[in-house]
Design goal:
It is a single chain. The protein is mainly alpha-helical. The protein has a three-stranded antiparallel sheet, with no helix packed on it. It has a two-stranded antiparallel ribbon with strand order 1-2. Helix 2 packs parallel to helix 8, helix 3 crosses helix 6 and helix 8 packs antiparallel against helix 16. The protein is globular. About 10% of the residues have low confidence.
């Protein structure tokens, strides 16, 4: 396999969700300078779900006009849009407009919506494009998709986003210019450290990441070394299907003496088990695969990330940073494991999904018990919550990759539906958690310095 093609595929995958992931990790730095403050995450959640209309349009086009839409021009457009939107964010994210008598961050929200359109559309265009390459490169693509969350998180960690330390307070209720405050008993106050570089620099970095994605995509289409590794475009023109039909007709057209001896058992095994893809799986098995795919993406992309701070911060800042960073590392790690150990058993997939969901249930329980979860203020509690996050992401990320590999073998339309179900699961997860977190306030966060638990 070509190392160059693997690297280009990884960079291409990194551009899939790097923009929105970058927005999320930068929130602690930018919310203090905009009118929406900490209501911005709720607004972003709504914008991302509205942006799914683009993914729905692409999916419907493939369903009702198969072959009419080539992913490559769409990818060029959305990646270029991502480059421009992230570049403009660096200059206009602080700008506000008065709407209905209140200040609103219209440029920030508008550009965030455009980035949401880019990333949501990537789910139903990037994956089908991978049909141009050999199946082994699909796991590399998923590794790059995992790095789209890890790389911005590491850069934000270097930037010092949200770093806080506690110091003795002199006046209870004191609020200083650097956004420090005294709460609780008045003995300590949380001091938020200034970032090592500004949000403008971070957004320029995101724009550079999108440029790398565009360059990688151009080379995947035109570099001679990649062309030798790529599959022929006959798949998209329908010539392969015609060849299969012609082969089948020639087989049936042979005289009885020329026809191969095929037992009834072998003939039954070769018959398509469903009308989906190549018919490898029955309708029930396909339903199971897509339900698992939707569940896994709902858990990893929406449900658990929405309560990550509630589950980790009670154990301390170190636990929170370790959990977020190591969980981001676990995603590409699962892709590399799947590259060398691709277990396609549906039974094993079910077991791994239940195993990962078990760790997710523990994380959700700790978030519900915040600010005083089990084993709080103990080293063992920190170790358990960090391990729970790592194993949760590792198990369910492996399941996502294996499902992607399975559906890739089923053909182009299967990968389109794979991307659509990914977005559907993420949307259902976000819609379910939004009222629980933002409307009803069922999860409580403690103060970083003064929360006391029995």
């Amino acid at each position: 396999m070509s190392l160059l093609t693997h690297l280009l595929t990884c960079f291409f995958g990194m551009g899939s969700w790097v923009a929105i992931n970058g927005m999320w990790v930068e929130l602690p730095l930018i919310v203090h300078d905009i009118p929406e403050k900490w209501y911005l995450p709720s607004n972003l959640t709504v914008l991302i779900q509205l942006a799914n209309i683009s993914a729905l349009f692409i999916t419907l086009m493939h369903r009702f006009r198969p072959g009419a839409l080539d992913e490559r021009p769409v990818i060029y457009c959305i990646v270029a849009l991502g480059i421009v939107a992230t570049f403009l964010l660096a200059f206009f994210w602080k700008q506000t407009m008065t709407i209905g008598g209140s200040l609103r961050s219209v440029p920030l929200l508008t550009l965030s919506f455009l980035l949401s359109v880019v990333d949501c559309t990537s789910s139903v265009t990037f994956l089908p494009f991978m049909m141009h390459l050999h199946p082994q490169y699909l796991t590399t693509y998923f590794a790059g998709e995992g790095l789209s969350g890890l790389v911005p998180a590491l850069v934000a960690l270097i930037q010092g986003v949200g770093v806080v330390h506690c110091q003795n307070a002199t006046l209870a209720g004191n609020i200083t210019a650097n956004d420090s405050s005294t709460v609780g008993s008045g003995e300590l106050e949380a001091i938020y450290q200034p970032a090592r570089f500004t949000a403008e620099v971070f957004f320029m970095f995101l724009s550079a990441m999108m440029v790398m994605c565009l360059v990688a995509f151009i080379l995947l289409n035109h570099h001679p070394a990649v062309a030798r590794e790529s599959k022929n475009d006959r798949y998209f023109s329908g010539e392969l299907e015609r060849e299969k039909k012609e082969q089948g007709m020639s087989l049936h057209g042979q005289s009885p003496e020329q026809r191969p001896m095929i037992s009834s058992l072998e003939a039954a095994q070769r018959e398509p088990r469903s009308s989906f893809g190549r018919g490898t799986y029955s309708n029930f098995e396909l339903l199971f695969i897509f339900v698992v795919l939707a569940w896994v993406n709902a858990m990893t992309n929406a449900v658990l990330p929405s309560v990550q701070s509630y589950s980790c911060l009670p154990y301390g800042k170190k636990a929170y940073h370790l959990a977020t960073t190591m969980a981001a590392v676990a995603n590409p790690m699962a892709c590399f494991i799947a590259m060398f150990v691709p277990v396609r058993s549906l039974v094993f997939m079910c077991f791994l999904t239940m195993f990962g969901t078990g760790f997710g249930s523990y994380i959700m329980a700790m978030a519900a018990l915040s600010p005083c979860p089990l084993l709080v203020h103990t080293d063992s509690g920190t170790v358990v919550i960090v391990l729970a996050w790592i194993l949760f992401v590792l198990c369910l990320s492996y399941v996502k990759v294996i499902i992607g590999v399975i559906l890739r073998d089923e053909g182009h339309s299967a990968l389109v539906w794979c991307g659509a179900v990914v977005q559907l699961g993420s949307m259902l997860g976000a819609v379910s958690m939004f009222p629980l977190v933002s409307v009803y306030g069922l999860f409580k966060s403690g103060d970083a310095c003064n929360t006391k638990c029995p």
